[in-house]
Design brief:
Elements (H helix, E strand, L loop, with lengths): L33 H18 L12 H6 L3 H22 L7 H8 L10 E2 L2 E2 L26 E3 L7 E4 L26 H4 L26 E4 L8 E3 L6 H4 L10 H8 L4 E2 L8 E2 L6 E2 L5 E2 L1 H4 L7
Parallel strand pairs: 3-6
Antiparallel strand pairs: 1-2, 4-5, 7-8, 9-10
Helix pairs in contact: 1-3
Length: 307
């Protein structure tokens, strides 16, 4: 993405992490099947209760981690994700094939313990991968990260890696270039599923005269990550938070927001999933199921005490 500067903090601009690929767990969005989410949140709750108000266990003495992350959602879910990664690495090392790493397999053949290491990573000694310093827990939660920013793009240290683009024009000419630390643009037309989906202003009530109902997704400005050409569903301004105000007017629906809102007010909702179930009044927090029906919030989350 950044040639030889990729994942290299030396000399990067405008910050040491500007050329680091997005590969870290962050507080933006979490989604998945209900059963998996229940198990994940139950594990998170157990960790939060276990931590309580005790000092940050992984702080290096600077108190930075304790002040910023202690008992936060980022801290708790990073612990879960880290333990899952450790468990997967244990399985990988124990069942390594000769074709995958012949040198390590040869060392194992002559009695070397693959977990016996004095490696140091960013100033921290690497733990014994086959004997981690915690009580065994069920660590596999099928957690995965949105590496390609298909769902959400976080702007911290990445503000210059994206911008609004109109896909009915030349894309390369719309890229903002700053200096040699820019990522190389990898742009391409909108995906077929976006092009074939309902257009931006489709069926917005009866007040359609004030809306460009014939506009397609090619005709509205869409935020695009230059580095891989992805148009994320959401944009997370966790870097320069002032961008939430200064860039709000660039959203494609901004000029029509009031009209769109008024068009939706008196409207009953029709399922757009599969099948046609008719129009029903939709309560707050409700969702569509995989059969095109409506599941109310209380039924989707029954058995949980939210108070």
């Amino acid at each position: 993405m950044f040639d030889g500067n990729t994942d290299n903090s030396v000399g990067s601009r405008p910050s040491p992490w500007s050329t680091t690929r997005q590969k870290y767990l962050n507080s933006v969005l979490i989604m998945g099947p209900v059963a998996d989410m229940r198990a994940l949140f139950a594990r998170a709750e157990a960790i939060a209760e276990e931590l309580g108000d005790a000092p940050e266990p992984d702080d290096n003495g600077s108190k930075w981690s304790e002040k910023v992350y202690h008992n936060s959602d980022q801290f708790v879910f990073n612990m879960i994700f880290g333990q899952q990664k450790y468990q997967r690495e244990v399985i990988r090392v124990r069942h390594l094939l000769w074709l995958q790493n012949p040198i390590l397999k040869l060392q194992q053949f002559f009695g070397k313990d693959p977990s016996d290491t004095d490696w140091v990573l960013e100033g921290n000694s690497k733990m014994n991968i086959l004997n981690p310093p915690w009580t065994h827990v069920e660590a596999e939660h099928l957690d995965g990260l949105d590496y390609w920013s298909d769902i959400t793009f976080q702007t911290a240290n990445s503000e210059r890696n994206g911008g609004w683009m109109n896909y009915n024009q030349s894309l390369e000419s719309q890229v903002q270039h700053f200096d040699r630390w820019d990522c190389k643009p990898h742009l391409h037309p909108l995906p077929a599923d976006v092009i074939s989906s309902q257009p931006p202003f489709f069926n917005q009530g009866n007040d359609n005269r004030a809306l460009p109902i014939n506009a397609s997704w090619d005709d509205v400005p869409l935020y695009t990550q230059y580095c891989n050409g992805v148009v994320p569903v959401m944009l997370h301004h966790n870097g320069d938070k002032a961008s939430r105000d200064s860039r709000w007017h660039q959203m494609w629906y901004y000029p029509y927001a009031k009209t769109l809102f008024r068009a939706q007010e008196p409207r009953q909702v029709e399922s757009l999933v599969t099948g046609k179930v008719g129009k029903e009044a939709l309560k707050p927090g409700s969702a569509f199921n995989d059969r095109g029906g409506i599941v109310e919030f209380e039924n989707a989350c029954q058995g949980w005490d939210f108070h």
